[in-house]
Amino acid sequence: MIIRVSEARIRPERFEEFRDMIVSAVREFPGRYPGLVDHEVLLAPPDSLLYVSRWRTEQDLVAYAGEHWRDEPVVLPGEDEYLAAPLQVRHFTLASLS
Questions:
Q1: Secondary structure letter of residue 12 according to DSSP
Q2: Is 78 left (phi over 0), alpha (psi -120 to 50) or beta?
Q3: Closest CA to 36 of 78, 1, 77, 74
Q4: How far is CA 87 from CA 9, 12, 72, 81, 83, in A?
Q5: pLDDT of 1-32, one tens digit each?
Q6: Mean of the per-residue pLDDT values for the chain?
Q7: Which one of 18, 22, 36, 44 is at 20 to 30 Å from 83 when CA atoms are compared?
Q8: Is residue 13 part of a domain?
């Protein structure tokens, strides 16, 4: 499993609009991307939002984010107008606790 974390630094006066746009956009992702195990939007008002998604395989993540998934965030149309800084993306795998 690959956990992808996209962090948006948002212009505070646009935070609520951005939140609504992202929640609406990602709501349909499970139906569009079968390799998406689950996802969530985490809020840290007034200026930060994380989109956390969990993917079965690298191939599933490529289908969503493209060949450069490791380095390039997925930017939705119109998203840039809300951002105070470029999106940041990081990836994680799970460590065994046993």
A1: G
A2: left
A3: 1
A4: 7, 15, 9, 12, 8
A5: 999 999 999 999 999 999 999 999 999 999 99
A6: 96
A7: 36
A8: yes
The range of the structural domain enclosing residue 41 comes to 2-92
| 97 domain residue, yes or no | no
Which of 92, 88, 91, 90 shows the shortest CA–CA distance to 8? 88
Number of domains in the chain: 1
Do 52 and 5 form a contact (C-beta atoms < 8 A)?
Answer: yes
pTM for this prediction = 0.93
Predicted confidence (pLDDT) per residue in 62-72, tens digit: 999 999 999 99
CATH number at residue 10: 3.30.70.100
Length in residues, the chain = 98
Q: What is the pLDDT of residue 96?
A: 85
